[in-house]
């Protein structure tokens, strides 16, 4: 054994395997180190570039929105200056038109430099205790006339019942009064802050990153996704550092957390968009690269090792394939075939195995066919046993009618009996049309109604489409017979049997409904099962029909029974929609 192991380690196969594997592993390790460093730098650069693109897009969208609001402000200002003296109803109508075209406008107001309202929208009362001249937007307009000023977000509390977060645009302008004198005034346009808030709110810089907006002049935070924590003093931002940059990116370790900060200035209002992403997420990407390279190294080693064992695998593979096929046969799968690719002992063994499986499959199919044929013959014998019993009762009724001189009833019963047996025979066919089946049961009901002295009435309805469909013969008669004997005959009242045929859910559905005594729940639960037996024989006809349908059409078809004691019973017959009979 020792010499055999020594021989294996000194074989050419072992030397080739060891040399090729060692060389490949060394090359993969070297390439992995180079790729790791390259991917690491690329990941950081891509993260910075991606953040810059996102923040630039937010800033661009915000600039476009503010530019559009500036245009609205200018339009209002031009309308005021071009409409002469104040007050002016035509001017008010034009301003109201502008106000109604923009859903984001909250307030348009014109005030004197002393804080007196000249006109405003909405046209509601102002709060009595408001000090208009102390408002920051009012002071900015007075201190910087003819310059459009933007306020920080605030709650607009000028009017009663109106308290919305807005950004105020204000400007000091000069107007002419009715006597031609010039008057200093302040024009105010409030924009709903929600429109501005939505732009940075949707920004996601990684899983934890976010963006916020600051004022370029004082560093006030205009928007922050955690604004409540900022106001409560539970969260801080390194605003001082951000104010030093107009745009670009830098690394920050504020509060002991390494972050990548991206800055972009919104030029027309002096705001800055600050993007914050966390370095631990970038390091996560780095760790993912390390894991990937490690798995790549292991995969390469596995591939190299497998390649060296190719020849031995080539020899053992046919035997393994044969073993797996035998396991499938053990689990009952006989639909297998082993491809023969070689003419050696393994190939001949595989060919013999295929012959054996084919023979077993043929014997199984033969056995199934014989069992089905036996079952079918048994059911047909049960079917044929219905006719003598029914014929005897009918002829007995004819004799009684003839004896009482009711000749017309005798003619009707004998005619119905003749038609009944003509359709029953159907020249030996096992499948007849739905129309013939309904005609067959109609004649049966005529006979039974006369025998039971009009104890029940019947209704037969069918959709025109289903009449030409083919179905298994003598399906309705045993069920109607069961309904009469076990549902209507024990009832003291006059009953009704309703028979219908229609298309439902893509299937042919025939139903037989009666208002007889019904079936108890305990008997109903096992009515279609082979284990259900009772002395009255209630379930024999039902089971026979159910099994005939499933044998001929498959497991998804058959009978469905619903019944309630003293209310009646309904039997649904589910069949496929076919134009021609299915012989099997």
SSE topology sketch:
Layout: H1 2-9, H2 12-81, H3 89-101, E1 105-112, E2 117-121, H4 136-143, E3 149-150, E4 154-156, E5 164-176, E6 182-192, H5 193-201, E7 210-215, E8 221-223, H6 227-231, H7 239-242, E9 247-252, E10 259-266, E11 271-278, H8 279-308, H9 310-330, H10 345-384, H11 386-403, H12 407-425, E12 431-433, H13 434-451, E13 456-462, E14 470-472, H14 476-488, E15 495-504, E16 507-514, H15 521-525, H16 538-553, E17 558-564, E18 568-575
Parallel strand pairs: 13-15
Antiparallel strand pairs: 1-2, 1-6, 3-5, 4-5, 5-6, 7-8, 7-11, 9-10, 10-11, 12-14, 15-16, 16-18, 17-18
Helix pairs in contact: 2-3, 2-8, 9-10, 10-16, 11-12, 12-13, 14-16
Structure report:
This protein has 16 helices and 18 strands. The protein has 584 residues and is of the alpha+beta class. Strands 1, 2, 3, 4, 5 and 6 form a 6-stranded antiparallel beta sheet that branches. Strands 8-7-11-10-9 form a 5-stranded antiparallel beta sheet. The protein is 51% helix and 20% strand.
What would you say about this model in short?
By secondary structure, this protein is α+β, with helices and mostly antiparallel strands. It has helices at 2-9, 12-81, 89-101, 136-143, 193-201, 227-231, 239-242, 279-308, 310-330, 345-384, 386-403, 407-425, 434-451, 476-488, 521-525, 538-553; strands at 105-112, 117-121, 149-150, 154-156, 164-176, 182-192, 210-215, 221-223, 247-252, 259-266, 271-278, 431-433, 456-462, 470-472, 495-504, 507-514, 558-564, 568-575. Helix 2 packs antiparallel against helix 3 (89-101) and helix 11 (386-403) packs antiparallel against helix 12.
